[in-house]
Structure formats: structure tokens, C-alpha cells
Design goal:
Layout: H1 3-20, H2 24-30, H3 35-43, H4 62-75, H5 82-96, H6 99-111, E1 116-119, E2 135-139, E3 142-153, E4 160-166, E5 176-182, E6 189-194, E7 205-216, H7 228-264, E8 266-267, E9 270-271, H8 276-304, H9 310-335, H10 345-353, H11 363-372
Parallel strand pairs: 1-4
Antiparallel strand pairs: 2-3, 3-7, 4-5, 6-7, 8-9
Length: about 375
């Protein structure tokens, strides 16, 4: 955290208090953060901070993204899906888009006029991206996309969606391509219901349907067909590190809330903190949280330097999210019955933590990837 990153953290903290906090709970209840919040965040300069200045962004790095993601978690506003928008969707366009594609889409992502999503998962294909069934067939100067996606973050609001599709169903990984679909400009695109989830209630997550959706040929991301799987594999380390950053922010917040509670709550005539079991448990969790944060900080530095490999990112993703679930379970226990009540933040933190071990590749897949390197 140098001076620039500290200034960003301070500015974003003030922005959250002023623009997000007053209406956040109503958005969580409604199942989606408002368009106005997205626009305000873009106007404040907090969307896509790592994108180049040529497109209206700050020209920062993943370190700047991490500051914003971490602050969202510490403030308890992590149902706001800007992390995926800024640190996953925009980089695909920045890395693989043509000059014309970048000019067309990046300024809107920076301003909040465009809300990004990436449609990978299907009803029959999750971590195994080679198994996707959605197809994109060339038809003159267009591609025709058919298929369905599910569990798509930002799915109810997104109007710019990167779609993973098969351009050659017989070619395995080499038959996968990515397409950028501007939903307001096509026919045949439908959104399903806003899915009712265990956690992250305020982050709209949807089914998406593509029924003969015609997109122009220049919606293909990359210079030719068949590059999609390589593009996905190249960007997944950043996505997995992003999940680890979110995990450690949630851990930090949970420990802070729990410490406040056990210092005030009394049982059998003394503070809960004064019991040796409480002290030992919290000492263990604080130590593990510190280890995790140091590891994540090192991964961020490696990513910024272009040296973060897939195996290390997989380690960070699986270990930090496993730790997150452990911390939430242990901390909730200190709250007793109150921890099970939705009005207590630890309850929401517990529910939100569970999906972290599933998306961006399950933790079992992470272990497979690590094992292959041994």
C-alpha cells in the first residue's frame, strides 16, 4: 500500500459511505444493485481502474483493482458486482480485442454505461469449459449463437456479455471461441429469472438464453476462431486471485466483527473474550489470516509484474477460500444463536463464503492443477 493506493482506498471509502451505503440494504433485498449505483461508481472513477487512460480509465494495475475489491469486502458491500466487471470482463477486451473493439467497449465499461458479464457456465458444464454446448456458427458476415448459460453474475443488468461458445464442436479445446454480445443490439437474447441463492443475495445471478442470436463477425474476440480456451486459461489466474482477495477481505471483516462482539458479550460473569478457548481460537484464526494476506499480497505483486503462474493462483484461490469458510464457521460459533440470525452480519458472511470454493473453478479442480505441477 503505497501513497497512491492509500489515497484510492480513502477516496473509495468515502464514496461508499456517500453513494452506496444509504441504499445498499434495499438493493440486497431487491436482488440487484441499481443502474444508478453503477453509473455513480463509473463517474467517481472506480470502475476498471487498471484499464488504459486512453479509454477514460486511471491507467493503474491489478493492485488498484485489489484495493477496491478489498474495501468492498471490509465495508460489507461485496454484493456489488463491480469486481467481475472491472477485473475479469474488461481485461478480456483489453488483452484480446482489436483497436476498434477497445474503442467501442472499454469507455462504456469505465463509465458504467455498459455493465459486463462473462457467460461460461452452462447447465451441463461448469469447471470443464471444454464441455460447453453453446455454438456459434458463421453465416456470412455474422455468427449465429445458440445455447443457454446459468449462474451468470451481473446477469440481470449486464448489457455487454462475453459468451463462451463452440465454433468447431469436434475440435475440443481448439474449437472454443469468445464473442462479445451487446444485448441491446441483438434479437433472440433472453434473460431467465434472477436466481435465488444461498448467499450474495444482492448480486444478480441469472440464466441466459441465446436463440439464434446474430452478432456481427467482429464480435469475435481475437484474430481468429479457436482461441477462446487459450484466452480463458490465460486470464483465469487473475480471476482466481481476485477470489482470494475477496476471501481475505471477508476474513478480515469477520474477525473484526467477532472481536468486537466477544469483548462486549458476557457469559458466566465474564467477557466471552476472557475464556481461554476464545483466546486460543481467535489467536489461531488471526495467525492464519495473516499468513493468507501475506500470500495474497505476494501474488498481487507477482501478477502486476507479470510473473503469477496458474499453479500459484490456484493455491491462493483454494487455500484462502477454504480458510474463509473455516473462519466464518468459527466466528459464527462465538455469536451463539445470534450468529444464526440474518440481522447479524456474520450470518451473511457465512452464507456468502460458501460459493467461493465453487466458482472460478472448484477447489477440487485447483488441487488437480497443483498436483499436475508436482
Amino acid at each position: 500500500m503505497d501513497d497512491e493506493l492509500t489515497m484510492l482506498d480513502d477516496a473509495f471509502t468515502r464514496f461508499l459511505e456517500r453513494e452506496i451505503a444509504p441504499d445498499y440494504e434495499s438493493w440486497v433485498e431487491a436482488g440487484s444493485v441499481s443502474w444508478e449505483a453503477w453509473k455513480a461508481t463509473g463517474a467517481g472513477g472506480f470502475l476498471c481502474p487498471a484499464m488504459p487512460e486512453d479509454y477514460g480509465a486511471a491507467g493503474g494495475s491489478f493492485a488498484h483493482e485489489s484495493v477496491i475489491i478489498r474495501r468492498l469486502g471490509l465495508a460489507g458491500f461485496d454484493h456489488f458486482g463491480i469486481a467481475l466487471h472491472s477485473a475479469i470482463v474488461a481485461p478480456y477486451i483489453a488483452h484480446y480485442g482489436s483497436g476498434e473493439q477497445k474503442e467501442r467497449w472499454l469507455p462504456g465499461l469505465v463509465s458504467g454505461d455498459l455493465i459486463g458479464a462473462i457467460a461460461m457456465t452452462e447447465p451441463g458444464a461448469g469447471s470443464d469449459l471444454q464441455a460447453v454446448q453453446t455454438t456459434a456458427v458463421r453465416d456470412g458476415n455474422h455468427y449465429v449463437i445458440n445455447g443457454s448459460k446459468t449462474f451468470i453474475t451481473n446477469g440481470q443488468l449486464a448489457n455487454l456479455i462475453i459468451v463462451v461458445a463452440k465454433t468447431d464442436p469436434k475440435a475440443g479445446a481448439k474449437g472454443v471461441s469468445l464473442f462479445v454480445v451487446e444485448t441491446d443490439k441483438v434479437e433472440g437474447f433472453r434473460r431467465g429469472r434472477n436466481l435465488d441463492k444461498l448467499g450474495f443475495k444482492g448480486n444478480d445471478t441469472s440464466e441466459l438464453f441465446f436463440d439464434s442470436v446474430r452478432v456481427p463477425a467482429d464480435a469475435l474476440l481475437g484474430s481468429e476462431e479457436g482461441q477462446g480456451f487459450y484466452q480463458l486459461m490465460e486470464q483465469l489466474p487473475q480471476e482466481r486471485l481476485l477470489v482470494a482477495v475477496q476471501a481475505m477481505a471477508a476474513v478480515e471483516r469477520a474477525l473484526a466483527l467477532t472481536l468486537d462482539y466477544v469483548k462486549e458479550r458476557k457469559a458466566f460473569g465474564k467477557r466471552v473474550l476472557d475464556f481461554q478457548n476464545t483466546q486460543f481460537k481467535l489467536a489461531e484464526l488471526k495467525t492464519e489470516a495473516t499468513i493468507g494476506q501475506v500470500f495474497v499480497n505476494d501474488c498481487i505483486a507477482k501478477l502486476v509484474a507479470g510473473k503469477l503462474d496458474s499453479v500459484t493462483a490456484s493455491m491462493a484461490k483454494y487455500w484462502c477460500t477454504d480458510l474463509q469458510m473455516k473462519v466464518m464457521d468459527e466466528c459464527l460459533q462465538f455469536f451463539g444463536g445470534y450468529g444464526y440470525m440474518s440481522e447479524y452480519p456474520i450470518s451473511r458472511l457465512f452464507a456468502d463464503a460458501r460459493v467461493q470454493r465453487i466458482y472460478a473453478g472448484t477447489n477440487e479442480i485447483m488441487k488437480v492443477l497443483i498436483a499436475r505441477s508436482l
